[in-house]
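Dear H.,

Thanks for agreeing to be a second pair of eyes. The structure we're designing against is below in token form, covering all 271 positions.
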């Protein structure tokens, strides 16, 4: 059977290097090594298997129960021919109802992801965060740096804060463009996100998201300007000093904990 013709609009860059593919496949359950060993298989969902370069290693692993979702009809035909044993869904991950695929319990997410929708994939992972203990795989290096970035760095932004609130991030390794066909214009990196111990944020979680997004919309500005619409301007009292302090800062200077504190102060300003 013919190889799949790479389509740019689907972010198709097929990995050629089997060694890299194997190393990516191995990222999925190493992150859980500190947990009690279980005799149950780890359920893993692979996004965008393409021609199955990662898939073959995941299928071989006796500890993994694999499902894959692929949007490209040509890739689906290829996978059905070469991996008839694979549980494969033809469709768009962003539209997939994960509660139907997995009515209960946990599952990991993995992929050499379509780079053009990687942020959207991670926002969807966040929606299911309490059921996804590990999300790992390959993305554009620049996005990986943003996700893993600590406060005070240029790369620190919305994705860093929202993901780090719930996941521990590991930047595992960098991958050069020439191991892909066709080579992408950017470098790539493999990361692993492991769900942290924070079940709920100690603040209104919806307001937290709004505060983070609004603040970073104008990342060069003092938050006094960007958060104007969210803070009650008439607030007074003890706690105000702390709020004042935050409002003189720029969003990239705040840690996850400080964003939680700021969210609570903003909520209080309306009492
Ligand atoms: N994992 C393969 C392919 C990577 S390219 C490899 O390493 O070689 C990204 C893959 O994601 C392509 O196969 C593309 O068709 C698929 N894809 C793109 N958008 C998708 C979506 N919304 N849902 C599922 N798969 C998608």
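And this is the sequence the design step returned. I haven't edited it by hand at all.
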């Amino acid at each position: 059977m013919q190889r799949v013709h790479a389509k740019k609009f689907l972010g198709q860059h097929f990995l050629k290097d089997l060694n890299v593919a194997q190393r990516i496949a191995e990222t999925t359950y190493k992150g859980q090594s500190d947990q009690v060993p279980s005799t149950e298989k780890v359920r893993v969902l692979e996004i965008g298997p393409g021609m199955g370069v990662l898939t073959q290693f995941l299928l071989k692993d006796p500890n993994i129960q694999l499902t894959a979702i692929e949007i490209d009809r040509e890739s689906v035909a290829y996978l059905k021919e070469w991996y008839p044993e694979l549980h494969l869904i033809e469709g768009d991950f962003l539209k997939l109802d994960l509660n139907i695929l997995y009515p209960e319990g946990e599952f990991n997410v993995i992929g050499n992801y379509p780079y053009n929708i990687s942020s959207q994939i991670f926002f969807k992972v966040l929606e299911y965060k309490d059921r996804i203990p590990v999300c790992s795989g390959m993305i554009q290096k620049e996005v990986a740096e943003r996700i893993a970035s600590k406060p005070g760095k240029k790369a620190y932004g919305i994705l860093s804060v929202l993901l780090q609130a719930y996941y521990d991030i590991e930047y595992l390794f960098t991958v050069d463009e020439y191991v892909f066909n066709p080579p992408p214009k950017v470098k790539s990196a493999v990361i692993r996100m492991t769900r942290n111990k924070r079940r709920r944020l100690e603040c209104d979680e919806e307001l937290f998201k709004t505060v983070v997004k609004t603040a970073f919309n104008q990342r060069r500005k003092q938050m006094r300007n960007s958060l104007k619409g969210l803070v009650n301007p008439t607030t007074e009292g003890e706690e105000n000093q702390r709020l004042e302090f935050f409002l003189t800062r720029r969003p990239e200077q705040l840690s996850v904990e400080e964003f939680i504190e700021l969210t609570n102060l903003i909520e209080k300003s309306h009492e």
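Two observations from my side: The pocket of S-adenosyl-L-homocysteine is lined by residues 10-15, 47-51, 53-54, 69-72, 75, 92-94, 112, 114, 117 (CB under 6 Å). Strands lie at 14-15, 42-47, 64-70, 87-90, 108-112, 134-140, 167-175, 180-181, 188-195.

Warmly,
E.
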